[in-house]
């Protein structure tokens, strides 16, 4: 969860109120938030496609039911996780937008 102080500092940095360029926090070496979201979405889509292909293979008699159930459960868990992250991002956005100027 985003702390209110961190959100306030980020908002000030964007608005240029009180944060100077030398006082900006150091950027960590790693993937950006957008890249992490893109990777997570790709994983969700991939697990869904795997589950769909296993369901098709099972109806043709080419896959075990255990594999199908495992793949569907994995896809469901991935989707639930992505939905929870989406809800938290929306909540953080709404908190930032409700802050007084």
* Distance, first to last CA: 22 Å
Structural class: mainly alpha
Report the count of strand segments.
0
Strand residues, percent = under 5%
Low-confidence stretches: none
Roughly how much helix do the residues carry, as a percent range? over 70%
The residue-averaged pLDDT reads 84
Q: List the total number of helices.
A: 3
Q: How would you spell out the order of helices and strands?
A: HHH
Shape, principal axes of CA atoms: elongated
Radius of gyration: 21 Å
Biggest β-sheet strands, sense, barrel: none
Features:
3 helices; 101 residues; elongated; mainly alpha
List the helices and strands and how they pair.
Elements: H1 4-15, H2 33-59, H3 65-97
């Amino acid at each position: 969860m985003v702390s209110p102080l961190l959100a306030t500092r980020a908002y000030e940095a964007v608005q240029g109120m009180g944060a100077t360029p030398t006082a900006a926090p150091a950027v960590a070496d790693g993937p950006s938030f957008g890249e992490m979201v893109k990777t997570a979405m790709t994983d969700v889509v991939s697990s869904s496609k795997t589950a769909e292909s296993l369901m098709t293979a099972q109806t043709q008699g080419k896959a075990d039911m255990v594999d199908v159930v495992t793949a569907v459960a994995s896809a469901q868990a991935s989707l639930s996780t992505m939905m929870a992250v989406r809800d938290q991002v929306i909540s953080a956005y709404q908190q930032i937008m409700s802050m007084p100027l």
